[in-house]
């Protein structure tokens, strides 16, 4: 009870520090400014869209927009591109929307769009890799993009907020604090790790935004978001975990919206490491963990069948996946000579090798409330089959990346695997030989060859069929431990209206979100 009370006090202090002593003051009056407080799933360190994944925050906050976007059913729809056509396997023609203004009043042109895409590729290596653009040209309000060979993934990749369109005709050096984009809301003030305030953009091309002012207080922890919602210090809490939904369900003061997400939680296994380079050991571990337990008790969603969420429709029903069977796991290790030779309860590598002791890296991110208890469960389950797991906690994924070659055997990753509604990005970034996000050092020439085929496969049905083969290959080769697909939950107070719940969590606030009552603006 003491530990629980201490944790509750710490969370309350976190809420107070982030939100100040604001007390909601609800009042009637249609003439009063409409004000909203929103707590997001994650926050950018700055607002420069080409930095890391910071563009995601701009789109979530209604600041930035891209050429195309996904609707709630993951269909691709126009945004800043009014329409497009594929001229041939390598050439795409985009008709840029006319009448769009940037937050400084300048008109958006096709030249701005081309320069923005080039800027992203110049400033972010990930952008250059995923865009795969050979050349671009502009004719009036038409933009032509030519890729390096057939490239079916171009369109979904241009929906990535990394390609948020900005005004390239001005000095962009202060975009980290005040980017000039095209969304329904423009930045008024950015305080890193404290709050971002946006205000209505009166010249928005898509119609009048329904709110006047929105604050995005920094509340990185899901528990803190839940507590702030209960106190009604915020109106919208993005990506709450299932365990925190109880107070809001069957409660007229709140609206709970849940849907299966496009995310996957999995564990890298260092296939170049001292222990997990052994396929028999990796394969045995896949049968020693209880994905159903993790999904129900920690992840809050469904157990994983493969790299992608079942919601994507990419053939998971046809995959043959490992099942929880500790006895079979031990049988596999016995047959491979991975046995306990000295009777201390721990298995050793074959032929009198070293005792197996795996380091499980847990990074102090927003997912810590999931990963910490799940790590202890995994540690206990692998202990039951004779494998020692040592849990190592680090402060961030940056440290984890730096440490991976030194002591990483296992590491969790929470990734939006289907975020572009195309399978290529996830498989390429995390499992293709030598890619910078391949933290498990996985390498298999047969897998790489199939990926090379996926890069140039244009037909959607053919891409899905090849994705099934790639997914099954990773499962059979024990390339990683695919654990679960978390639900994507948004909780709002009852004063919030017209908030659309997208499957992709980089969309949250748009021009239609409004409130039915008003509150004071601090």
Main beta-sheet strand count, sense and barrel state: 12 strands, mixed
Overall number of domains:
3
Q: Which structural class best describes the helix and strand composition?
A: alpha+beta
- CATH topology of the largest domain: the name is Dipeptide-binding Protein, domain 3
State the fourth-level CATH superfamily of the largest domain. Answer: Dipeptide-binding Protein, Domain 3
Low-pLDDT windows of residues = 1-27
Structure commentary:
The chain is an alpha+beta fold and 522 residues long. The chain is 29% helix and 22% strand. Strands 2, 9, 10, 11, 12, 13, 14, 15, 16, 17, 18 and 19 form a twelve-stranded mixed beta sheet that branches. Strand 5 and strand 6 form a beta hairpin.
Keyword list:
D-Maltodextrin-Binding Protein, domain 2; disordered N terminus; 22 strands; four-stranded antiparallel β-sheet; 22% strand; 14 helices; alpha+beta; Dipeptide-binding Protein, domain 3; twelve-stranded mixed β-sheet
How would the blueprint of this fold be written?
Elements: H1 2-19, E1 26-27, E2 35-39, H2 55-60, E3 68-70, E4 76-78, E5 81-88, E6 91-96, H3 110-123, H4 125-131, E7 133-139, E8 142-147, H5 154-158, E9 185-191, E10 195-200, E11 213-217, H6 222-230, E12 236-238, E13 254-260, E14 264-269, H7 279-286, H8 291-299, E15 301-303, H9 326-335, E16 357-363, H10 368-383, E17 388-394, H11 397-407, E18 410-415, H12 424-431, H13 445-456, H14 460-476, E19 480-493, E20 496-497, E21 514-515, E22 518-519
Parallel strand pairs: 2-11, 2-12, 16-17, 16-18
Antiparallel strand pairs: 1-22, 3-4, 5-6, 6-8, 7-8, 9-10, 10-11, 12-19, 13-19, 14-18, 14-19, 15-19, 20-21
Helix pairs in contact: 1-6, 3-4, 7-9, 8-10, 13-14
């Amino acid at each position: 009870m003491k530990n629980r009370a201490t944790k509750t006090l710490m969370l309350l202090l976190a809420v107070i520090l982030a939100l100040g002593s604001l007390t909601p003051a609800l009042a009637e009056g249609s003439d009063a400014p409409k004000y909203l407080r929103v707590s997001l799933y994650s926050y950018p360190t700055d607002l420069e869209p080409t930095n890391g994944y910071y563009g995601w925050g701009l789109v979530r906050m209604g600041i930035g927009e891209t050429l195309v976007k996904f609707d709630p059913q993951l269909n691709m729809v126009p945004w800043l591109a009014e329409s497009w056509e594929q001229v041939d396997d390598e050439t795409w023609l985009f008709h840029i929307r006319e009448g769009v203004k940037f937050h400084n009043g300048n008109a958006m042109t096709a030249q701005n769009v081309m320069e923005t895409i080039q800027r992203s590729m110049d400033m972010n290596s990930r952008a250059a890799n995923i865009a795969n653009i050979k050349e671009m040209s502009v004719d009036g309000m038409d933009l032509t993009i030519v890729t390096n060979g057939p490239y079916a993934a171009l369109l979904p990749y241009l929906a990535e907020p990394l390609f948020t369109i900005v005004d390239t005709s001005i000095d962009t050096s202060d975009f980290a604090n005040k980017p000039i984009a095209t969304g329904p809301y423009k930045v008024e003030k950015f305080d890193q790790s404290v709050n971002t305030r946006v205000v209505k953009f009166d010249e928005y091309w898509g119609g009048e935004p329904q709110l006047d002012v929105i604050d995005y207080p920094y509340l990185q922890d899901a528990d803190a978001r839940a507590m702030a919602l209960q106190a009604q210090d915020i109106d919208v809490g993005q990506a709450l975990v299932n365990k925190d939904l109880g107070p809001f369900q069957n409660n007229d003061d709140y609206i709970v919206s849940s849907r299966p997400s496009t995310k996957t939680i999995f564990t890298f296994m260092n296939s170049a490491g001292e222990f997990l380079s052994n396929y028999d050991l990796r394969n045995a571990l896949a049968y020693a963990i209880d994905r159903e337990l993790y999904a129900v008790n920690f992840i809050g969603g469904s157990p994983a069948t493969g790299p992608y969420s079942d919601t994507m429709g990419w053939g998971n029903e046809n995959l043959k996946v490992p099942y929880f069977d500790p006895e079979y796991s031990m049988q596999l290790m016995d047959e491979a000579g991975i046995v306990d030779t000295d009777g201390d309860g721990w298995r050793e590598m074959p032929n009198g090798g070293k005792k197996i002791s795996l380091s499980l890296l847990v990074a102090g991110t927003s997912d810590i409330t999931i990963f910490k208890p799940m790590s202890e469960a995994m540690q206990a389950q692998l202990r039951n089959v004779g494998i020692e797991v040592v849990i190592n906690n680090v402060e961030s994924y940056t440290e984890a990346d730096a440490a991976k070659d030194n002591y990483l055997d296992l590491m969790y990753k929470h990734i939006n695997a289907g975020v572009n509604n195309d399978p290529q990005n996830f498989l390429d970034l995390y499992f293709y030989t030598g890619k910078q996000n391949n933290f498990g050092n996985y390498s298999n020439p047969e897998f790489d060859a199939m990926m090379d085929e996926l890069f140039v496969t244009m037909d959607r049905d053919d891409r899905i069929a090849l994705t099934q083969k790639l997914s099954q290959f990773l499962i059979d080769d024990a390339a990683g431990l695919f654990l679960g697909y978390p639900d994507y939950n948004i909780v709002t107070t009852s004063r919030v209206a017209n908030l659309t719940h997208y499957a992709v969590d980089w969309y949250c606030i748009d021009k239609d979100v409004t409130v039915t009552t008003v509150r004071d603006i601090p």
